[in-house]
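seq:
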Amino acid sequence: MLSAVCSILAALGGCAAPLEKGSSGGLHRAITEIDDVILLPQEITTYANVAGERLTIGTGCRNTLLAEFRERFYVPWTQASSRYDLAETKKSMIKTAQAKWYGVNRRLMPAGLLRGILDNCALDKFPSRDEKAISIVPTHLRGLPTHLPLFTAANAYPFDMLQYPQVKANEPLRVLHVSRDGIWFFVETAYSNGWLEAKDVAIADQNFIDSWMALPQLVIIRDDVTVKDERSETSYKTEIGTFLPLVEAGEAWWEAEVATVGKGRTAESSLTRISREVAGRFPLPFDRENITLIGNQLAGQPYGWGEMFGLRDCSAMLRDFFQPFGIWLPRTSADQIASVQQRLDLSGKQPWEKEDVIRRQAVPFLSLFYKPGHIMLYIGPDSKGRPLVFHNAWSIRVKDAAAGHSQIIGKAVITTLEPGKEAGLVEGSSLLENMTTISTITDRCPAPQNPSR
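struct:
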């Protein structure tokens, strides 16, 4: 409780955060935890146990959700043409490259450097290809064909505006273009589009696709699982939600396929063997045991904007939470909340009115709460009846003697809808005040299949 007391006093100007000795011998101010993170259990088990039977999804609804998942996941292979307005995509790349940005050195990016990146897009020929493909390793989509980050301000780290979602190994892709230097492909995934390094992609013919889709699937259920391509004898790390076609089941292992690259960058299948402890048959049952298994691994993980460094931001965490269960979520927070047509609009409601709607309508581990730019998973009420959410959050706005400043959370946490209240939130900045929408996943299903509220 000392940290909590100090947080309150600091907000009143009467206590400073403790100073810690840095590696250089100097002193720096430590980042303190907010009370919610200290006082609320930061593991999923407690909340899944309380939710109990409300975690059940009816058979009909499970089938509906799984059919939707498969349709969305394989769309780069099954749809006849691009799902995006490519003329608008081209305009967006030009606009991005012509804007003013800051680099990692906190200085303005040279205009000549940005012009060179734009020229490498070869937009005079965009789009130049239309080929089905697959990722052969985990990789990242980028807004332009460069690894250089672009920031809106000198102090805007970690929000690199070119950092698009991570692409897991074995994901269906559609190649639409190649950079002038041949190093990058412009691709579509099931949830986004952008530039990938060509070395991470293999071109898939129809025989490969048909064979791949015909096999039952495994899903990785733990992070940092090493997968070895037995043909090339190369290895890479996979994360929760990665799929591998199942070939054979042993007593303690699975034998599965991984995509690899053959002659002419064509996709081929190779075998790998992994422990049963790190993967399960897809989809996992949506039950207390598996919700706890997946949720506890995500809890406490560091925040990673756009899945930078293989970490997760708010929407990436929720997508990976639901993916092993065969429940589709798009990639951004706005798209995720909009993925359910029957949304509850809370705009204009008072905080107490929002809490009343939550008590009556929200379903633990199935309802998503949204405020512009951020998405959260409702996990039930605490002992005081306050709604609790599981989310990966970067910071909150708190008061100090002069003006508001950001206090870093920087990880996946379980909080109330007013995290940091004890430190004095900037007026109007709480999650509860800014929350605008509730979506419940099972509202995608026919009404009789929905869990009781």
